[in-house]
Amino acid sequence: MLGDRAAAKKRVQLIKNLPTLPGMIEQISKAVESQRFSVDDIGKLISRDQVLSAKVLKLANSAFFGFSRKVGSLTQALVLLGFDVVKGLILTSSVFDLMKAKAEGLWLHSMGVATASSIIAAHLEMEDAEEISLAGLLHDLGKVVLRAHMTEDMEAIGALVEDQGLSTREAEQAVLGFTHAEVGRWLAESWKLPEQLAEPIQYHHDPGRAKDAPLVTAVVHFADIMVRGYGYGDGGDPWVPPLDRAALARMSLGPELLKEIIAEVCDKLVPEVALPDDD
Amino acid sequence: MFKLTIDKLQEGMVLAQDVTRGDGVVLISAGRQVTGEVISLLHRLEVETVVLEGDLFASEEERVEHLRRQEQALDHRFSRVTDDPVLMGIRELLRHHLREGRAAMPAAEDPAGAGEQAGGESC
After folding, report:
1. Is the pTM here over 0.90, yes or no?
2. By CB distance 3.0 to 4.6 Å, which of A11, A14, A184, A231 could disulfide with A141?
3. Which of A269, A270, A277, A279 to mutate to test the interface with B (most CBs of B within 10 A)?
């Protein structure tokens, strides 16, 4: 186990390396806060970065948001999703870009949790369904950053999972002195994400500690468990983590509702078959 | 049920889920057989993937063996929470979907299938 000082050193090292937002987002955040700019102005500002806007639009049109019509422009995305969600989508594409092909399994896991979160939110008739999907999409942000910036430690963590059967979280705690949930929290703070997103990121394994967004955190906690149980994507280790009873009670999911939700998750998350090109 | 990219579609396959436009309008209904016409329509509509009926196994033995491996992986994933009746209930619901062929789960113990895609149904 690590001493406090060693853990602190690793933490500082990591925080120094946290991905920053594209500079343009900083300007836009200020513009939004100052309330002097219209949604149209802001959409145009983001649209100047064509690669980024294409990625954001692709995510905005993902099945888990379930819009009844295609989101065709950034202005439209801002109106439909709100600035916080669009900002979250920009973060998502910036961060997952760090990983490219290497993070395919984690990306699938994240998409799966976003989809399952949106299915649960719809069944519970929750408001802000888009933010809940986004919270699911971002819940393992800390893992992405760890994989990108702590390569050697990640090998040690992987070995502990593989050889000793530790869960990813236990292995992270043993090697780093902190977990991906805390890394996600630091990132959420440095990016000024709202608590509706920050708490599910920090507490998706420990939903009882959420204060500002306990229901969203409970939904993401349960979505993570379902997607792991279903075996979609790669969350770092194969095991379904313990289910928090208070979180389950908070969602008041009865057996019938649970059945419907699972059927829908199975329908929406059909894995893609990779056939060779010359078949 | 399995998902395939449009370029790998073959005539005779059957759509298991509706193909919908971004605005939710159904363009091609579930149950439709894939023909050359359907394939070119999907290309024009810029649809990337579709969900199809059945599976791609060469034989019944292969299908049974695959199902056995998937159930094993399912049990392994839930092996640390066997004292939780709710999670055990969820496991059995997933097993049911798996057996019905409703859930084409990737095999967790199959590193070859854990490559770029999540699919474990390849043959």
Report:
1. no
2. A184
3. A270
The pair of three-digit structure tokens given for residue A259, joined into one six-digit string: 């059945």
Closest chain A residue to B78, measured at CA: A240
Contact at CB, B118 and A105, closer than 8 angstroms? yes
Cβ burial A172-198 (10 Å sphere, 16+ → b, else e): bbebbbbbbbbbbbbbbeebebbebbb
Chain B neighbours among A 32-61 (CB < 8 Å)? 61
What are A125-152's pLDDT values in tens digits? Answer: 998 888 898 899 999 988 988 888 888 8
Written as one letter, the residue type at B20 is T
Helices A195-203 and A129-138: crossing angle, nearest 10°? 40
What span, in angstroms and rounded, lies between the C-alpha atoms of B87 and B82?
A: 7
B56/A273 Cβ within 8 A: yes
Helix (H) or strand (E) run with residue A145 in it: helix A141-149
What lies within 8 Å, CB to CB, of A7 at 6+ separation is A176, A177, A178
Pair of tokens at residue B105: 């789960």
User: Which of A105, A229, A230 faces B114 most closely, judged by CB atoms?
Assistant: A105
A228 touches chain B (CB under 8 A): yes
CA atoms within 13 A on the CB side of A185: 12
User: B3 forms bridges with which residues in the sheet?
Assistant: A272, B51
Taking only the tens of pLDDT, chain B with its 123 residues reads 888 888 889 999 999 999 887 666 788 999 999 999 999 999 988 788 899 988 777 788 888 888 899 999 999 999 999 999 999 999 999 999 888 876 554 433 343 333 333 333 333
Q: Tell me the nearest-neighbour CA distance from A57 into chain B, angstroms.
A: 12
Which of A243, A232, A207 has the alpha carbon at shortest distance from B94?
Answer: A232
Q: Within 10 Å of residue A138's Cβ, how many Cβ atoms?
A: 28
Residues A85-106 have pLDDT tens digits of 888 888 777 777 765 556 788 8
ipTM for the whole complex: 0.83
Flag if B102 and A267 touch (Cβ within 8 Å): yes
